[in-house]
Amino acid sequence: MAETQIYEGAPEAEFRDYVALLKPRVMSLVVFTAFVGLFVAPVDVHPFIAFCAVLFIALGGGASGALNMWYDADIDAVMKRTQSRPIPAGRVQGNEALAVGLTLSGFAVMMLGLAANWFAAGFLAFTIFFYAVVYTMWLKRWTPQNIVIGGAAGAFPPMIGWACATGGISIESLLMFAVIFFWTPPHFWALALFMKEDYHKAGVPMLTVTHGRAATRRHIFAYTLVLAPFSIWLGLTSIGGPIYLAVSVVLNLLFIMGGWNVLRRDEDVAVADGYAVERRVFKLSLYYLFLHFMALLVQHWAGAW
Asked: Source organism's superkingdom (predicted)?
């Protein structure tokens, strides 16, 4: 990690800058998927305990974001889409972000253990470690498989939510993990196709940088094919049903078609139209994940199998 660049005359930090350290957009995904994992579990949880559990999982996710921003400040200062983050912009000191991340990590894990159970708390602690150390400090700068392996960190929250309710792991929680895990590479690689120069300047070995755009397109399509069976399999478990399956089949067909369109794109045409197809597939990937987990909620309300 390089020294954090602090700009002369940078404005003083405001409360929103410390909130930004927690990566609220990413945290929203953590909150939603953790809530779904907890809500669809076959064990009733008191509403107050459920609220506290999701809150502490969210704080753990935010702590991971702060630790990520602390370590990646040198990369963020180079990449166009991250230059305005609090640390590279000089509004927050790196050691402040580290303190926020460590403090929130300890608080979130301890409080989740007290509010729910210590298995879930240990799972949260492992997730924070995986994202902050395994992904951020090791994988991200070392291998083009950074997104593939590191994607596990973002796939753990529904398992943690499930563990808060049940105290363990099941095929349902593993399949919720698998949906997010196999969704992550095509989601981020679609973004990387039209953000390649950022990763190249920052020296991040994203697949587009190390293997080129053609290989990335092949990988995107392959992962849409791998993802589909797991998301549909989830619909055949105790938390699935016809509503979820209908949504999943439609979304997977659209995602596979999108991956196919990305695969057969000529690079010159893609550059000429501003990567319009790739941007649409990236946007579709956002709807894909949200609607799958929303369908689980709707199916739960309507009654599972």
From this structure: Bacteria
State how far the Cα of 305 lies from the Cα of 243, in Å rounded to an integer.
10
Distance CA 101, CA 62 (A): 8
Whole-structure pTM value: 0.91
Residue 12: Cβ-neighbour burial (10 angstroms; 0-12, 13-18, 19+): exposed
pLDDT tens profile 93-138: 999 999 999 999 999 999 999 999 999 999 999 999 999 999 999 8
Asked if 185 and 175 touch (Cβ cutoff 8 Å), the reply is no
| Phi-psi region at 122: left, alpha or beta (left = phi > 0; alpha = psi -120 to 50) | alpha
Amino acid present at 100? V
Phi-psi region of 90 (alpha: psi -120 to 50; beta: other; left: phi over 0): left
> Residue 208 in contact with residue 216, Cβ under 8 Å?
yes
Model pLDDT for residues 253-301, shown as the tens digit of each residue: 999 999 999 999 988 888 889 899 999 999 999 999 999 999 999 999 9
**By three-state DSSP, how is residue 49 classified?**
helix
CB neighbours of residue 87 within 10 Å: 26
